[in-house]
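Q: Please design a sequence for this.
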């Protein structure tokens, strides 16, 4: 049984779409490899970065709340 022939959207090279191929169905195996490296997991953050993100998110929420619910005078 022959596998379907696809054209890679990145490098425009033809490849056979085989079952259980890692990566995307519209990319050849060589173009899919870099994607699989980065899909492993999140990068860990230290305590200072988490605190800075939390403070920035709190400031964003407060600004959005002020913009949405302020009374026009």
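A: Design:
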């Amino acid at each position: 049984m022959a596998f379907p022939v696809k054209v890679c959207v990145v490098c425009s090279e033809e490849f056979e779409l085989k079952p259980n191929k890692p990566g995307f169905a519209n990319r050849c195996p060589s173009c899919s490899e870099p994607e699989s490296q980065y899909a492993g997991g999140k990068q860990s953050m230290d305590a200072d970065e988490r605190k800075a993100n939390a403070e920035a998110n709190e400031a964003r929420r407060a600004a959005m709340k002020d913009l949405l619910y302020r009374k026009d005078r």
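Q: Thanks. Anything notable?
A: The CA atoms of residues 1 and 18 lie 11 Å apart. The first helix runs from residue 29 to 38.
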